Amino acid sequence: MPQAPRIELHPVSQRVQVHVHVGGKLLADSSQAFELRESGYPPRHYFPREDVRMDLLTTSETTTHCPFKGSTVYFSLGENKDIAWSYEQPIEGMEAITGKVAFYEQISK
């Protein structure tokens, strides 16, 4: 029996938003997000950068590497450290996530 792929990308047919817990500030609002499903992890929405309030985020010093997606850059919002990340140069086969932004906490859809 063929094994399911480790990572699958799915278009989202509805508008997706991300709000900050404190103050309810809107950080992302998109009708062009997609959902990344990875074995062993919760699904995450990836947003086009133009649909994210990048002016509110600062680049963090944190970086990580995933053998299935590549190296990440993290973003913080004031005291909220590393709340979002992006794969600036993902590995071959994962080009669809290049420069897209994902968040740990998604408040509303």
Automatic annotation (TrEMBL):
Identify the residues that the record assigns to the DUF427 domain, covering every copy.
18-105
Q: Which InterPro entries match?
A: DUF427, DUF427_sf
Q: Which Pfam families match?
A: NTP_transf_9 (PF04248)
> What is this protein's record name?
DUF427 domain-containing protein
The signal peptide annotation in the UniProt record is none
